[in-house]
Amino acid sequence: xxxxxxxxxxKVRKKTGLSDYKISQKYSINQSNLSKCKSGxxxxxxxxxxxxxxxxxxxxxxxxxHTKLEYAKFTDSKSKSIFWQNQLEKLANNSRSIKIDIxxxxxxxxxxxxxxxxxxxxxxxxxxxxxxxxxFPELSLVGYPPEDLLLHEGFIQQVQDKVTLINQTISNxxxxxxxxxxxxxxxxxxxxxxxxxxxxxxxxxxxxxxxGVFDEKRYFKSGNEPFIFECQGKxxxxxxxxxxWTSDIISISANQGVQIIISINASPFQIGKHSxxxxxxxxxxxxxxxxxxxxxxxGAQDELVFDGASFAMNSNANITLQLPLFKEAVQxxxxxxxxxxxxxxxxxKTIYDALVLATKxxxxxxxxxxxxxxxxxxxxxxxxxxxxxxxxxxAKHIKAIMMPYKYTSNISLEDAKIQATTMNVDYHEIxxxxxxxxxxxxxxxxxxxxxxxTTEENIQARIRGTLLxxxxxxxxxIVLTTSNKSEIAVGYTTLYGDMSGGFAPLKDVNKTLVYQLxxxxxxxxxxIPERVIDREPSAELAPNQADQDSLPSYNELDAILALFxxxxxxxxxxVKQGFNEQTVKYITQMVLNxxxxxxQSAPGPKISPNAFxxxxxxxxxxxxxx
Length: 626
Known about the structure:
The protein has helices spanning 4-16, 20-27, 31-38, 46-56, 60-74, 78-94, 112-128, 155-169, 247-254, 273-288, 347-366, 380-393, 410-422, 433-443, 454-475, 485-490, 511-524, 530-534, 554-566, 571-576, 581-593, 595-599; strands spanning 100-104, 133-135, 175-184, 187-196, 199-204, 228-231, 234-240, 260-265, 291-296, 298-301, 304-307, 311-313, 319-322, 329-332, 372-375, 398-402, 426-429, 478-479. The chain is an alpha/beta fold.
């Protein structure tokens, strides 16, 4: 809770430019009393309170009531505390309604200059609109997650410099909240900053997540105090992300009479996550009967995608505001009129939009690539990857390369060219017959007497990977890897071949979902040939090859993988779900055997509860039997 007496004194000192001694002389206030007020050990009487209100040109009854309440608390007068608290609440109810705006922004990790300017610009615009309080997401000044940037010398000092700049630049007639790290006595906190009337206040996140993609205990210490402030006569509590999932943290603030709880968040997207957030906040609201504002980050950072979808919920647990998914937005909060949730989008649209944003931000935020290279095979995975890339950065920035060999079907050649032409993508064919034959000739003496196997198949994939990377180096475009989660799980990909590339949009998308997304994308415009969707999948690395020659159907495979990878079930448990024991053992062993490949794979956006990447930390060397 802000010490209001100390707060008013600081404002008087700043506005007048006078020392405590000169203030006491000019306004006939006891200097000893001022010193105690400055340290927070005493309160001022009614006469100085009235003078302070005159100097600051603010509501006299409010100043006096605040100081009276604090004096009652200092003197342990419970009856007077109750009386003045009631008076304060009456004043709050009689004041004009507060105007709160929420800013769902897409910061860039480490871009302190850019993020600062965005916060300042949006604050200035909000002030012009008459906003009283503007709220930004968790760690919005530095981006989320900053990871080991937090350990880098000088980073925190730069953060503090930007906080000072924001404070000096914005009007003192608007309050703002944003997230940034805060360091004190060599202890680092994940904090919410409140800048109000040119003063800076802090709340330190109490519940630090340390599971899945979260690693906050590596960097931060937990706070242990609630934070309550006032704005336009409203009593407001502030929490950060995971705090809102903890009933005790919310109830402590609610029990102090707050009227609004604000949670700032950097909550990543995964399937079903937004519904979980709403249910959690609904529980907090039903427990406390308090209006709630949930402000979430939007944008992508490496493997994470932040969906935004910020919302407000009134004390009856009705949604009264819902911001869009995957888009920056600024909007005013109202708690009066319940709305029907806007998001009636299909799961396919939601996931597709997440993949597009992830691809767009990875390319544009890194700012080292001028476009995309895709090996277009005529198959479903590269077809969907091309669609995602075009929707992310525009078809004119993409080169599609078809690299046929003798096992490449005419259908694949035709469909690849049709899709590229339909999408106005720059399309090229590089025949790899001579290159493959040359490789095989050079290896003949080493492989003499040995049967042809996947070694020769993988040579084709590795030649294609080498060509794509050469084009990438020469043109400055990033190669997008086209492998999906099902293939990556069982190692049905070639290391240094089709795994070559800088980003993998489908890394957390299983094969059955690939087909669903392709069909969805064609509802927007028919760019993926129907034959690509309908035909049996094949790597086309051998005569008459089909994926199901060595794998069960993708429906069965994906169901087993979901139970093993995302649910972490044992073989015995999976078999009890109705699957063949031999098949389950075969698939789960393939997953474990290919950890070494996944460690060398390109990053890709997380959409599931357990994505390959920083979230899934299995040892490469292991004798575990599931």
